[in-house]
Design a protein that fits this description.
About 35% of the residues lie in helices and about 20% in strands. It is an alpha/beta fold. Helix 3 links the parallel strand 5 and strand 6.
């Protein structure tokens, strides 16, 4: 899988992409994550990527030209499954979406910034708009990292124990059950006896019941879907 990230703040990606599962996936050749500075694609001698909005609204708007130039350059090299724009008013990102995108070969992720992007970018260049929640951030860089992490960790081989990802919250529309590790008794705080029993069927039943209970209590909306 290849993910191309388009941004005006490429330095925000240096540390997150260079550690943990994202680094491991890249080192193994499972994922190629390339960050592009949109200022390198502008036709303005000052490398300007934003301008004032028509109509007099406050704030600055990302221009069409550098975004189109970068996307066109990438598309000349390969085909892309999606051109994603990170936007607070996009479709809400969830585990089902991460599962689907993890099957893609090539993705472009455009990080919004300033007041937003010229709407013609969204009309003519973007194929999918995604939000990570109903709130506004300074830019789309953090959402791009969130989505990249959620997608790449699902690629077979990215996680040492692939079964671990299958038991994550939301994979079956339920929250994950409680998990424990050694010691079995810590200052009187004890691990449930069922988990020490070795009875796999009963443990599986307990875990499912716990998932249902936690989902009803914490995220009842998941059961209504």
């Amino acid at each position: 899988m290849r993910i191309d990230i388009l941004t005006v703040l490429p330095e925000m990606f240096e540390s997150p992409l260079g550690c943990s599962i994202l680094k491991r996936a890249q080192d193994k050749g499972l994922a190629e994550i390339v960050v592009h500075n949109l200022r390198d694609y502008t036709d303005d001698k000052h490398r300007k990527v934003d301008d004032y909005p028509f109509g007099g609204e406050a704030g600055m708007v990302m221009k069409v030209q550098p975004v189109e130039a970068c996307i066109n350059a990438l598309k000349r090299e390969r085909e892309y499954d999606e051109v994603i724009f990170t936007s607070p008013d996009g479709e809400t990102f969830n585990q089902k979406m991460a599962n689907g995108l993890s099957m893609a070969e090539n993705l472009i992720v455009l990080c919004g910034h300033y007041k937003g992007v010229d709407y013609r970018i969204r009309e003519h260049l973007v194929t999918k708009e995604i939000s990570i929640g109903d709130y506004v951030l300074t830019g789309g860089e953090l959402p791009a990292l969130v989505m990249t992490d959620a997608i790449v960790r699902l690629i077979p081989g990215a996680i040492g124990d692939e079964q671990s990802a299958l038991s994550d919250s939301f994979q079956d529309d339920l929250l994950a059950p409680p998990i424990y590790t050694r010691p079995a008794d810590y200052n009187g705080w004890k691990v449930p006896d069922i988990l020490l029993s070795g009875h796999e069927a009963k443990i599986a039943e307990w875990r499912h019941e716990q998932s249902l209970e936690r989902t009803r209590r914490l995220r009842p909306d998941l059961l209504d879907e």
